[in-house]
Each structure stands twice: as structure tokens, then as C-alpha cells.
């Protein structure tokens, strides 16, 4: 089984103090730590598990700068077979649509049974790439996938719905699946895997290798554009009500009444 996994390198922002870069359309990245996108990490693990079960190959593809090589080598250390990085100054400013188009131009000539992506990225959270790639490649797809079983060129998948519900689907391969967190437990890279990964070549392709023009990528080829980023203003602090249940309830009623929420 031949698989392709699209991944993204994202900043760790959970405990970081973010500041807006000059121009107001991006964040300052100098002091941020970057790692593989969480959802993509599960997609990589799922591809490796399927490869261990059925054989085949796993190719990792990313649009990113040279700094992203660290993320790609991490995937190779876990068990991926090869990696491709798409890098060109013309790609800067590309939205989800333009990124999907760049990926499609490289993937369309590759043989694959499954193309996996994460459900979304932790920086933008758009959740677009998998669906758009499926449309561009004209293959079936499923999103929010929480389990995969393969039999006779058919993927039996479960996808997450609202309210804790799930949906079971059968999808003919080749197909695109967007992977949800929790589908597996991503492994750690072994020392031997890390050593071997350092010897593997990361293939780098630019705009000229895609067959696209500068008008097709970047802001010119995008459907959306970030106009402004800003840090939300801090609102009023919470007021903690103390005392017994009766006392706290009385205080709450008075507050609601003072704000015109109670008659």
C-alpha cells in the first residue's frame, strides 16, 4: 500500500507570549518553538501503521522553508520512506486553496492508495487542505477519521460527528482521508531511526517544478487574505462569589438585577 502524508510545521503557542509582527498580518516567530502539527502527527503514525501491516511506502510532503527539514526528518525517523519539501519565495502568502493547488501539482503524478492529512492545523485551523486536494485530484474523501480498516481496495472508516456520534463509511481507494487526533498513539523516534533519517535525502522542489506560475500561488493565487492580526483585549476580571449556597445565590441575583437581567 502506497501512502502520501501532507504535513505542516507550526509554532507551539500554548504557553508562548505572542506578539504581532510589523505590518500586522503575521506573528513574530523569532523566539517560538516549531514542531509538526498535532493532527498531522497522527496522520503520519496511521500511515506507518498501515505500512507495517500491508507493506508499501510512505512519502511525506510539506510546503515550507529549509527550517522545516527538521520536521521531515522526524517523520523519516519514525518510519516514513522519503520526503519532499516544496519551497519557493513565490509560495509566501498562499492560503489553503493555493497550498492545496501546489500540493496537487506534485501529487497528481504519484501513485498512491491513500493520501492522508490532518483534520486541521493548530495555527490557522481552517481544515481545508484534505477536502480541496480530494476535489482537485478527483478522488473520494472523508474527514474527521477516527479509525481505518483496509480490505480489497476499500477503506472502511469511522468519522467523528457532533455529540459523540460516529459515522461508518466504505470508500474505494485511492482516497483522501483527513485524520482526527486520538486515532492512534504516535510513536517516538528511535535513536537508530534518527541516525538513519539523517542519511536520507529530502527532495526539494520549487515553483518551476510544479508547472504553476507566480499568478497561481502566493497572494495572487489565493482566495483569501489575512488583513490584520491582533491580540484580543482583556475584558473584565471574573468576580468570585463566596459564602454558602444561599449567600452566593443571593449575590448572583443582585448582580443580575443590577445589570437589568432580572425583573
UniProtKB/TrEMBL annotation:
GO terms, molecular function: electron transfer activity
Keywords: Electron transport, Transport
Top-level taxon of origin: Bacteria
InterPro entries: ET-Flavoprotein_bsu_CS, ETF_a/b_N, ETF_b, ETF_beta_N, Rossmann-like_a/b/a_fold
Gene3D superfamilies, alphabetized: HUPs (3.40.50.620)
Family to which the UniProt record says this protein belongs: Belongs to the ETF beta-subunit/FixA family.
PANTHER family (UniProt xref): ELECTRON TRANSFER FLAVOPROTEIN BETA-SUBUNIT (PTHR21294), ELECTRON TRANSFER FLAVOPROTEIN SUBUNIT BETA (PTHR21294:SF8)
Record protein name field: Electron transfer flavoprotein subunit beta
Amino acid at each position: 500500500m502506497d501512502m502520501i502524508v501532507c504535513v505542516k510545521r507550526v509554532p507551539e503557542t500554548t504557553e508562548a507570549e505572542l506578539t504581532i509582527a510589523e505590518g500586522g498580518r503575521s506573528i513574530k516567530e523569532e523566539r517560538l518553538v516549531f514542531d509538526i502539527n498535532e493532527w498531522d502527527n497522527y496522520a503520519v503514525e496511521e500511515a506507518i501503521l498501515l505500512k507495517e501491516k500491508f507493506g508499501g511506502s510512505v512519502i511525506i510532503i510539506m510546503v515550507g522553508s529549509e527550517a522545516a527539514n527538521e520536521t521531515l526528518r522526524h517523520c523519516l525517523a519514525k518510519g516514513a520512506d522519503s520526503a519532499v519539501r516544496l519551497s519557493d519565495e513565490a509560495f509566501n502568502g498562499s492560503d489553503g486553496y493555493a497550498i492545496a493547488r501546489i500540493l496537487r501539482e506534485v501529487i497528481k503524478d504519484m501513485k498512491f492508495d491513500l493520501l492522508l492529512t490532518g483534520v486541521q492545523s493548530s495555527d490557522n485551523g481552517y481544515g481545508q487542505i484534505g477536502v480541496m486536494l480530494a476535489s482537485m485530484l478527483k478522488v473520494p474523501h472523508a474527514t474527521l477519521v477516527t479509525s481505518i480498516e483496509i480490505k480489497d481496495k476499500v477503506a472502511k472508516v469511522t468519522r467523528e460527528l457532533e455529540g459523540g456520534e460516529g459515522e461508518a463509511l466504505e470508500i474505494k481507494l485511492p482516497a483522501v482521508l483527513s485524520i482526527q487526533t486520538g486515532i492512534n498513539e504516535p510513536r517516538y523516534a528511535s535513536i537508530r531511526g534518527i541516525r538513519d533519517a539523517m542519511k536520507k535525502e529530502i527532495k526539494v522542489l520549487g515553483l518551476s517544478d510544479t508547472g504553476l506560475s507566480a499568478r497561481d500561488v502566493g497572494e495572487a493565487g489565493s482566495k483569501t487574505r489575512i488583513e490584520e492580526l491582533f491580540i484580543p483585549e482583556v475584558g473584565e476580571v471574573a468576580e468570585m462569589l463566596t459564602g454558602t449556597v444561599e449567600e452566593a445565590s443571593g449575590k448572583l441575583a443582585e448582580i443580575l438585577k443590577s445589570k437589568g437581567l432580572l425583573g
